[in-house]
Each structure stands twice: as structure tokens, then as C-alpha cells.
């Protein structure tokens, strides 16, 4: 039986109000239109649904039977609409973000703070791991958004948004004051006590490619799993750290660290926001828009 669902909606409001007049007011529809809809529905199911009285209407036995089912359906629809409204208004939900500790501290934290202040009822989960592992979790829909250094060989169903350009540099503390202002050649990289990321990291791959192209054989003093550790050990004077200039502005400005005078024309690098296009999270989409509007 192919019946217009709007007819059942009209039936529901008339039955609930026990009045065509009150139903018309609630639905903002004329009384004749309400009466016509009820008549059409009764004709289509070949059953009388209401008994007309001077002060309103009451349900017939058939009407009572249908009303119970229709009320359940309307309640479910209302509940779904309320749930959607809560999500749309960001009054509930969860967002799962993946990023390195360095990106969180040096770039993402202000955005997370302001987002949480604006939407305090949204639960924020942070995952810190290597990019390849974060992407695996995003493919499994365990993570909604990844902040990472790009370019990166992303899966076909992943999309990226460029946020800011990044520039690698070599920095040191006052223990290496003798290098301050000195022009350093590419070949001298081989003799520097470098503090760099372990092999496999995006920045390390770019450095290794540069060294191969220029026939340079570096011997790192120490290797680390995060830029945060490189910065700490560089500040402590263990060696020359390879860090992202945009992430150490404060240290460069206050003189805790200084840049070495050496060109590192590495391939393009930028901070990007990455997400799986198949992810249906409304909260994630709103967070992406939030970042886009403020980047």
C-alpha cells in the first residue's frame, strides 16, 4: 500500500489534539486541507479513523490501532531529529586527532584550546604516533584527523589541506658559539655532531635523499623518535639539532638557540591536515572547518 507519509503525519496531529482546528494551528495548515488529508487517508485504507463530534474528534477502533504505531514512528523521527540537532550544534560527540607531540605543542594546542572553549561538550582524544601508524588507524576509522608533515604518500581515499610552509634548519646552543656566523659548506655536514630523527621519519628521509644527491655521508651523534627530544638535547648542548624553524621561533628569538649558516635546500615541506574522505563524523567535519577558517 503506497500512501503518502504526510497523510499519516496529519492523522497523528489530529488524533493527538483530538481536534482538526488545533491540529491545523500546530501544523500551520488550513482546516479544509487537514480535513481533505484525513478523508484521502480514510479512502485509501478504506476505513474510518475518526468519529466527528461537536467539540472535536475521537478515534475509532481502527484509528486507535493505527495511532499507536504512528505515534511510535513519529517519536523515533523526533528523537533522530533531536540527536542530529545536538550533533549539528556540537552539543555532544567525539573527535579523534592524530599528531606528533611537536606539532601538538608548537602548532595545534591553541586551536584545541579555543575549540574546547567554544564546544566544551565535545570529547577530544589525542593520539601521538608515527604518520604511517596514524594513517592505519584513520583507515580503520579510529582517528578522524591527522596533522603531519607533508608531502606524504597518502592512500587514494585520503585528502589533505595545506596549513603552513615549514623550513628545516640546523641549530645549536652557546656550546657551539664558534660556529655562529660561520659559513658552513655542504661537505662539512659530515663532521657535525648531528641530532636528527631516526630513519623512516619524513624529515629524515628528506635529509637522507639530500645527502645521497650531494654525495654526503653523515654520521649522526644521536638519533631520536621525536623533534621534541631533539630540541631538548640541542638546548642541553649535546650537538647540532635539525629542527623546523617555525617550531622554534621562541628559542631563536630569545637566543637559547641560533641557526647555523648553511643552506639546506631540501624538498618542499609543509604542515597539513589529513583525513579519510569516507569518514562521516559531523564533529570532525566541523573541526576541519574550524581550522580552515583560522589557519
Automatic annotation (TrEMBL):
<keyword id="KW-0238">DNA-binding</keyword>
<keyword id="KW-0805">Transcription regulation</keyword>
<comment type="similarity">
    <text>Belongs to the LysR transcriptional regulatory family.</text>
</comment>
<feature type="domain" description="HTH lysR-type">
    <location>
        <begin position="3"/>
        <end position="60"/>
    </location>
</feature>
<dbReference type="GO" id="GO:0003700">
    <property type="term" value="F:DNA-binding transcription factor activity"/>
</dbReference>
<dbReference type="Pfam" id="PF03466">
    <property type="entry name" value="LysR_substrate"/>
</dbReference>
<dbReference type="InterPro" id="IPR036388">
    <property type="entry name" value="WH-like_DNA-bd_sf"/>
</dbReference>
<keyword id="KW-0804">Transcription</keyword>
<dbReference type="Pfam" id="PF00126">
    <property type="entry name" value="HTH_1"/>
</dbReference>
<dbReference type="InterPro" id="IPR005119">
    <property type="entry name" value="LysR_subst-bd"/>
</dbReference>
<dbReference type="GO" id="GO:0000976">
    <property type="term" value="F:transcription cis-regulatory region binding"/>
</dbReference>
<protein>
    <submittedName>
        <fullName>LysR family transcriptional regulator</fullName>
    </submittedName>
</protein>
<dbReference type="InterPro" id="IPR036390">
    <property type="entry name" value="WH_DNA-bd_sf"/>
</dbReference>
<dbReference type="InterPro" id="IPR000847">
    <property type="entry name" value="LysR_HTH_N"/>
</dbReference>
